[in-house]
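Do me a favour: review this protein, sequence plus structure tokens, and tell me how the chain folds. Record follows.
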Amino acid sequence: MKTIIKTSIFLLINLFCLTSFSQNEIKVTIAGNSGDKVTMTREDLLKAGELTLETKETNCSISSFTFSWSENGFTKEIFVKGNKFSEIAIEAIKKTPIGVKVYFENIQLILADGKTKNMPSIIIKLVEK
């Protein structure tokens, strides 16, 4: 009987820890999309215009990211402060051909305690409407 009680308490504690961890999960998205296999139309990407946070955390913000794209066979990269697409990024998205990927990398967050956190990249392949 003691073993059953100990096992039950152990399972409840682990369940509580997992629930607490998942509630504190922070996810960076663009129009609800995240990861490295995203497809979006140019129009939808431009309409989004920013990286957003999906989290229950308060006082957490995106401080910067790098945006890269291919132009005339060369990879170009810019540093962007904040979460909104810069004018250079917007112009690059407008010029990027359908079927080509754009990259949002080195996404940095500032957490409530002042620490920074590097988030996973978002890679988007531009597609037709």
Summary: Strands lie at 27-29, 38-41, 52-54, 61-71, 74-81, 101-110, 116-119, 122-127.
